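Input (structure):
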């Protein structure tokens, strides 16, 4: 122990190196390196610039710190530094740091821009309550496939909320966190994110696998919740299906209200085209032949609008067929539908047409029968021909079985509804 004290400077550097070897480099640079290291009566004392930092390090990294300190025969203690050395001041003293958010295009959002179907009524109501400040849940976690309207809802909350709001994309949070580390303004960046009434992060899945950024973000969420602030997160999948996040993060994301947004239905797509000035009948035709992706739909609207503006004439069915030839889905034959459904349901076409009786295979085959019945004018015997030459009675039994299961199996119901919407 005496040797440790006499060789204080050398051992402090060794201790820092040992801690660094056990941690992610970005985490070490952000949290441990700026601390004031000192040895006093067999205790490794780490001086933090404020109580928040001391508490966060004690909660997150004490296991690593204890393990390293034990190797040197020391105890470890994290305290708020009273007289931090000048060399650490710029890196730790909030009073000497400033952070300026990058200039972004501030699009005004409106809930009226989101055309809600019956399936999306719940998530829309939840977003309105969050914006009004009357929600008793936080965070609000909104998830759904690309182009379903998550960003529209997030922007609408940002515009309609009272008080100060901070809205970032996941990519922006990652880049700004890295910039703050590089510029040694990390504590000012933390203050910027916390000094708000509503915090919105669009596309939280972008943070996956970025350990230091995730740690900072999780602490931000916990601090905002403890302060009673509103939090809105969007993602392309539900919290439990997020990859690259540990169970603790998934649990925190799901601790408020989780609401899904379904892709635009045909009715919603038609309404969007009508708003763009397309005749109702033509809008319905287009809606039935474009995929349920809001980004693609927006591109179609822009293309039609550009044509009308440039050519000075309204569109009709013939013009639409030519103008959107690269976008409109061609009518699919039953055999093409069956092969497409095989991919979606995870079975092979040969297996579906074969004599296999495995439960999963039979279920997939019967689901295909239901979809073909709903989207084509084929007789039951004809449907049987497309799924391996099944007879009329077999097809009737399979369809009847699936129809009964749909009342209780919501996942299957959603799968069939999605395929019907795609193929009709």
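Output (sequence):
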């Amino acid at each position: 122990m005496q040797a440790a004290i006499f060789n204080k400077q050398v051992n402090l550097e060794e201790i820092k190196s040992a801690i660094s070897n056990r941690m992610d480099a970005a985490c070490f640079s952000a949290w441990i390196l700026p601390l004031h290291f000192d040895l006093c009566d067999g205790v490794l004392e780490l001086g933090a610039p404020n109580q928040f930092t001391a508490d966060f390090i004690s909660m997150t990294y004490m296991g690593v710190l204890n393990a390293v300190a034990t190797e040197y025969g020391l105890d470890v203690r994290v305290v708020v530094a009273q007289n931090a050395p000048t060399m650490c001041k710029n890196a730790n003293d909030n009073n000497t740091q400033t952070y300026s958010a990058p200039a972004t295009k501030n699009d005004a959002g409106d809930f009226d821009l989101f055309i809600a179907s019956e399936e999306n009524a719940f998530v829309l109501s939840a977003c309105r309550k969050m914006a009004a400040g009357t929600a008793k849940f936080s965070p609000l976690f909104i998830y759904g496939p690309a182009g379903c309207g998550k960003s529209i809802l997030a922007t609408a909350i940002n515009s309609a909320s009272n008080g100060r709001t901070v809205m970032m994309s996941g990519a922006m949070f990652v880049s700004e966190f890295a910039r703050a580390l590089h510029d040694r303004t990390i504590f000012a960046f933390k203050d910027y994110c916390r000094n708000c009434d509503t915090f919105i992060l669009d596309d939280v899945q972008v943070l996956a696998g970025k350990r230091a950024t995730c740690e900072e973000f999780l602490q931000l969420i916990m601090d905002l919740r403890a302060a009673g602030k509103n939090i809105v997160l969007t993602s392309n999948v539900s919290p439990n299906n997020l990859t690259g996040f540990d169970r603790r993060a998934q649990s925190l994301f799901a601790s408020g209200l989780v609401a899904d947004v379904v892709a635009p239905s045909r009715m919603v797509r038609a309404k969007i085209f009508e708003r763009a000035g397309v005749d109702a009948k033509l809008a319905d035709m287009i809606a039935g032949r474009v995929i349920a992706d809001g980004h693609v739909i927006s591109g179609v609207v822009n293309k039609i609008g550009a044509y009308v503006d440039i050519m000075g004439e309204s569109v009709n069915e013939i013009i639409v067929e030519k103008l959107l030839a690269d976008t409109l889905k061609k009518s699919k034959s039953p055999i093409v539908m069956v092969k497409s459904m095989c991919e979606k349901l995870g079975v092979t076409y040969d297996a579906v047409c074969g004599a296999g009786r495995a439960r999963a295979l039979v279920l997939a085959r019967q689901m295909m029968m239901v979809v073909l019945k709903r989207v084509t004018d084929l007789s039951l015997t004809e449907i049987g021909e497309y799924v391996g030459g099944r007879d009329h009675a077999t097809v009737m039994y399979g369809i009847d079985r699936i129809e009964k299961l749909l009342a209780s199996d919501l996942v299957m119901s959603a799968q069939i509804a999605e395929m019907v919407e795609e193929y009709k």
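Notes: The longest strand covers residues 43-48. Strands lie at 36-40, 43-48, 75-80, 140-143, 165-169, 198-202, 230-235, 257-260.
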